[in-house]
What we know:
- By secondary structure, this protein is α/β, with parallel strands linked by helices.
- The chain contains 13 helices and 18 strands.
- It has helices spanning 2-16, 54-66, 78-81, 96-105, 144-163, 184-187, 193-206, 235-238, 271-283, 328-341, 343-348, 425-446, 449-459, and strands at residues 26-28, 33-35, 38-40, 42-47, 71-75, 109-115, 174-179, 214-217, 227-232, 249-255, 286-295, 350-355, 360-366, 372-378, 385-389, 392-396, 400-404, 412-413.
- The strands form 4 sheets. The protein has an 8-stranded parallel β-barrel with strand order 4-5-6-7-8-9-10-11, surrounded by 4 helices. Strands 12-13-14-17-18 form a 5-stranded antiparallel β-sheet. It has a 3-stranded antiparallel β-sheet with strand order 1-2-3, with no helix packed on it.
Amino acid sequence: MLHWVYWVVVVVVAGVATFKARGAQVTYDGRSLIIDGHRKILFSGSIHYPRSTPQMWASLIAKAKEGGVDVIQTYVFWNRHEPQPGQYDFNGRYDLAKFIKEIQAQGLYACLRIGPFIESEWSYGGLPFWLHDVHGIVYRTDNEPFKFYMQNFTTKIVNLMKSEGLYASQGGPIILSQIENEYQNIEAAFNEKGPSYVRWAAKMAVELQTGVPWVMCKQSDAPDPVINTCNGMRCGQTFTGPNSPNKPSMWTENWTSFYEVFGGETYLRSAEDIAFHVALFIARNGSYVNYYMYHGGTNFGRASSAYIKTSYYDQAPLDEYGLIRQPKWGHLKELHAAITLCSTPLLNGVQSNISLGQLQEAYVFQEEMGGCVAFLVNNDEGNNSTVLFQNVSIELLPKSISILPDCKNVIFNTAKVCSSVEIKFTVKFICHTRDFILKIIVEVKGFTRKEKKKMGNSLEP
Length: 461
Ligand SMILES: *[C@@H]1O[C@H](CO)[C@@H](O)[C@H](O)[C@H]1NC(C)=O
Ligand SMILES: *[C@@H]1O[C@H](CO)[C@@H](O)[C@H](O)[C@H]1NC(C)=O
Ligand SMILES: *[C@@H]1O[C@H](CO)[C@@H](O)[C@H](O)[C@H]1NC(C)=O
Ligand SMILES: *[C@@H]1O[C@H](CO)[C@@H](O)[C@H](O)[C@H]1NC(C)=O
Ligand SMILES: *[C@@H]1O[C@H](CO)[C@@H](O)[C@H](O)[C@H]1NC(C)=O
Ligand SMILES: *[C@@H]1O[C@H](CO)[C@@H](O)[C@H](O)[C@H]1NC(C)=O
Ligand SMILES: CC(=O)N[C@H]1CO[C@H](CO)[C@@H](O)[C@@H]1O
């Protein structure tokens, strides 16, 4: 009984929660980021400010927020901001501070991936062309000229953000920053200078005193206190985890699709497949998932790297023009709502996994106070599977994860896209939650003290 009332309260609270970060302290533990003393499960979406126009920013961010996104993640584009050494450009599509302020105005958080090498299918990976004329420079290694310019630009950006009061520690929306980018892919090529560069980059970043944590993606040896995070399509299966029990499990790039090259096939990744892997990551202790991209946008002019199409990640939840792409946008919105509903037991419960069959398993988060959440996974790609979970028989669709916010009732299944393109989202959401909400009403009603007494009386001989 208490249990059901509790869920009703969670629904209401989740509905009115806002993401204001007034002078918030951002830390972390082995479970999640901690903002103002509260652990958080966060959904994040990548939107790159130079890949749309300032006129589009407000509406893109609003649609991301409506889709259940809590954080907007962006790279910083060095070669646009410093076209000549010491000459800076932060105007128009390059107005980073304005973009971050728009995120703040809509009550969302921001993750700033400074790099400053960013890859991002961007010309020269974001490095300015003039850099290669610097005498004795070797990129992205323990090389004094490179480190000088890297530190110079990183400091410029951090100081700019600080001067505008944009870090969460100052009351701004930025809760995370990234230094370098997928460096481990090339680290070995630099022999012993690779690891020493990683240590230098982490130390340099941390000494900038942003007041919020730093991450390094795909960098399993990220030095403390920098958090190593996962990039990929299936981080629930591939991520070996943070490199310290005191760091949370975070996914900085979950590819919603893939970039395309001229002459290449259009890459399609289904809403069901994305939802499956996000749910699995959360079930396996993940607490931060970023969609790369949530809105890809346009590679204007000669911004993109060789062969990359003008249209960037058009198959994302918001298409190139910022229009909602269904069923991806709606299906992920429902997934976010289902997981948000479970966030208290997820963040405070003890996780265990139980085998339910050869290809079926359950991940259960159990709170001392009775809260319980289950993720039932069917890894069988071809067949439905009927499993017995806590004495209840439940049918699982092929290659799917069912979410049970009370360990009894399924409110979401990753393979069940409960929508058609024409139906509006509100209707679709009801279609997933209808049974659950009805149950709440029935259960709460069935257990009121008066009725209980009545029931008790009628049962008496
Ligand atoms: C960055 O380098 C420029 C010269 O290119 C210099 O004027 C500026 O002071 C340097 N800034 C930092 C923070 O080192
Ligand atoms: C998740 O965290 C729990 C501790 O609450 C730990 O026992 C378990 O092994 C972790 N599971 C995975 C898949 O990392
Ligand atoms: C639980 O998860 C661990 C780690 O993935 C795995 O080694 C173990 O076999 C799982 N146990 C069951 C009962 O599925
Ligand atoms: C699963 O389905 C395949 C056909 O898709 C069938 O060949 C196989 O026998 C089924 N397996 C089980 C365990 O029912
Ligand atoms: C799985 O079950 C659903 C509904 O119960 C049904 O529509 C579907 O055809 C089944 N799929 C397979 C592969 O048996
Ligand atoms: C599960 O069902 C069995 C037999 O139907 C019963 O003996 C057992 O107590 C039940 N367990 C729970 C946890 O309800
Ligand atoms: C298209 C692509 O590069 N996919 C990669 C996504 O990430 C997984 C694991 O990190 C790789 O195995 C895939 O090749």
